[in-house]
Amino acid sequence: MGLDMGGTHVDAVIIDRGNIVDIAKTPADRSDLFGSIWATLDNLLSGKKVSRIERINLSTTVSTNAIIEGKTAPVGMIIESGPGMDPSFMSCGSENIFITGYVDHRGREIKPFDPVEIQEAASRFKQQDIKTCAVVAKFSTRNPLHEINIQKMLKDEFCPITMGHTLSGKLNFPRRVFTSYLNCAVYHVFKAFCDSIRKAMQKENIHVPVNVLKADGGTISLDVGQQYPVNTILSGPAASLMGACAFNAGDKDAVFLDIGGTTTDISFVADGVPLFEPLGINIGPYNTLVRAIYSVSIGLGGDSAIHIENGELKIGPQREGFPMALGGQVPTPSDAMIVLGLLDFGNKDRAILAMKLLGEKLGMDARAASEVVYEKMADIIKQKVDSLIKDINSRPVYTVKELLYGKRLKPEYVSIIGGPARAMAPVLEKKFNLPCRVPENYEAANAVGAALAKTTAEITLLADTASGVLSVPEIGLYKRIDRNFTLDMARQKALELLKQRASILGAEGSETESEITEESSFNMVRGFYTSGKNIRIKAQVKPGLLYELRGVNYA
Amino acid sequence: MLRAKNRLGLVFFPAFDWAISPTHPEREERLLYTQDQVFEEGIADIEGIKFFNPGMATEKDVQRVHFCVPDVMSRVTESHLISAGGAIKAAEALMEKEVDKAFAIVRPPGHHAQRVVFGDRGFCIINIEAVMLENIRQRFGHRRIAIVDTDCHHGDGTQDIYWNDRDTLYISFHQDGRTLYPGTGFLDEFGGPAAIGYNINVPLPPETGEEGFLYVLDNLVMPILEEYKPDLVVNSAGQDNHYTDPITNMNFTAHGYAKLNHRLNPDIAVLEGGYSIEGALPYVNLGIILAMAGLDYSHVREPDYDPTKLKQSPRITEYIKELCEKIYERWCRKEGIARETLKGKEYVLRPRNVYYDTDGIMEEQTQKFKVCPNCSGLNTIHSRSDWGYEIFAVSIPRDACPACIDEGYKIYKETPEGKYFKTFLQDRVNDTYMSK
Ligand SMILES: [Zn+2]
Ligand SMILES: [Zn+2]
């Protein structure tokens, strides 16, 4: 069972080994997200054998809303910034304590932290009635011991204490600080939500794994999600893209468009696999290390307001109410598409009036004005997609091989979902000069995406045989290795640890197809001798879907 | 969100799959820790800082600067073309006003590569700054350019390339050639007949520290730049003056490099040497990036930084003071020196031996500069390597007068094919290059 919580609706779907069994849709009540979710599930499950359900995947906006609406808890930040940039811009908590101490890029402790400073931080937090805190140190992904030891000092006084290294193995200290902050800030809101789910499940006598969707289009178990709720932010676009992928199995490069009322979301798949943000998603003023599907939203949709400015047609980026066909005051692309006979809803005469008014300013009749709007909308999308592809193809690379022979994204088709999808397909096909696919039943794409999402995990392994240390920050592993550790051993170790990690996160054995995504091994030469090897590996559970969708069945 | 005061373009290309040899200082690992530091500091997230991939310099870009023997493509690897292409990309972003400043953190370096190239000298095969500058001069017009070379080694290649070009002021700070490779860079290396005084060397004693470097900058370099009024200042940002560098003997610091860069305020910086890949490069590069972006670099510090250990001796301070006075006095007298040196001369000869340390080649070379009242003067190079190749090159300078152009073509045509292993013609006026 998959469930997606959108801005206006909660959608849920039951899928049986790739076949859609049933779909339910209820209006979302933003003041009672849990209630809306439960009502939808209840609706979907009525008359079905609850015991046949194997798992439930939820995509929820609980964490996202808390951040966007500022309904977060106060957080105490303990930041060990070491030398480098002036760290003051990283103050994001209610209290921010910058402590001394420093670990370098190879994980060597240059200067220990001072326990007195930690005690002072704790008492400052308590004075402010702060209950949660985050501990983040520069290069903690290379050596987490400062974070771990500080956490040990504080663990009886604060809950939770988020340690920066547990959130991502990627290097980026400011993002680690912000991600840790957000994780603490939404912790209690998300925990309350999890508790409600558990209670309701108990009451309904449903005893199956419940997973939550992450921004990377994968899932984690409810329990792990509760510990690291920051990973559940902005999972909506991810669900939508995974759904679209389910409708478009294959291994080609493609553009994925979700054209809605107010916005169009643009994503890409490369060789059939969704493209990720290079470091992590941005939310509000924060850059994070939350792994996420690459998705760019532009202010252009069926209900975007159309104005003439200095004789030029301007569509969006705002929405100013309904299309005129539905009683709005401002002409919209939907009105144009109704006039052209591509959409069929509302009052067609009002739509014609909208285009007539627009046409008067442009010196043309209603039909011609509709054509112009329709073409222009496609042009805007095409231009934006082109510029995004150009950016993606010029992302920095670091080796001669990548620079000369690296993969370039070259879409072979366009997949469109959303209200105006079918209406827009012909004109986009012309502009892109590529086949445009509009999947059947795409209204359920988000819920389908949630239902079919599988557990994702990523780990970053670093083996430094000169220092004799192996570290995997995501699982807090930091241990000694001997000088003969090889790249081959590192690969095997990484895959083995990844499998363990994935199963802790909620994956079942059969669904974890692991792969090495990056690997390098550098000779470390000190003086005139090779002192060891610096081996770096990234491994991930191959992103994808639990099942391919087989046809579309409504029971 | 942090925002840079100056929009800064970074071409960061560590070439993780290229090395001279597995244990050579110029190897895959060289920029690894710089990358770690740059990534961990979140430099890419600073508003106003933009990363660019390098392009690839073309054969023609190289031919504008060098006479490669037997030809460009058999001397260079893809990595050399990418390194020069990285420098070009940085300059291009600046010229097209996409950024206010640019820093090319690329490898391999280039400032020991001279006009004639038989092989690798000091880890350099092509001079990436010169290839960059001549590319943008060709595309964006003539410019008065000052190159300030802060690498610990004398930039003998850059000196050679701009020896007779008064539109390119070359100033090199370096450890005294009596104590370090390549053994050149003394006060009397002062420029060719058309550019006497426009090649300035500042040989510093071993163990010069932050104080000494900043003294030279404030009391010698900045006043000269003020008088020269360049359109563009380029920093050959070698980082081997650092106190941890394994192949030099200086006492400079990351903070000092950042300060120097901040005060020099270059438009473009290009990484040159620097082989303390752990103790210095991550911090020096970060310091320079922050300084160029107009951000606070006061927290940049090496793990083992100890100001008392690095304090410069008063003897060195005194020596540098006198040295700067002497050099500045010569700069002021450059026209008089030119008149004396050139009195009654039609040609100036510059014979020397050049050693290619990495490849073990010895070259015997004579450059001949015509003293022309109307232009920088036609010049030729006659050179022979101890591997037996003898070449002859004719070079028509960028500002050549019609007489010098004609003379250049005449000499090239009249040199019979087969007389030398190769004969070259480089016509900088028409941007053409020939060889036979
Ligand atoms: Zn050097
Ligand atoms: Zn002339």
Automatic annotation (TrEMBL), chain B:
GO terms for biological process: epigenetic regulation of gene expression. InterPro entries: HDACs (IPR000286), His_deacetylse_dom (IPR023801), His_deacetylse_dom_sf (IPR037138), Ureohydrolase_dom_sf (IPR023696). Signal peptide: none annotated. Gene3D superfamilies: Histone deacetylase domain. Residues 74-278 form the Histone deacetylase domain. CDD domains: HDAC_classII. It holds the Pfam family Hist_deacetyl. GO terms for molecular function: histone deacetylase activity. Belongs to the histone deacetylase family. PANTHER family: HISTONE DEACETYLASE HDAC1, HISTONE DEACETYLASE HDAC1-RELATED. This is Histone deacetylase.
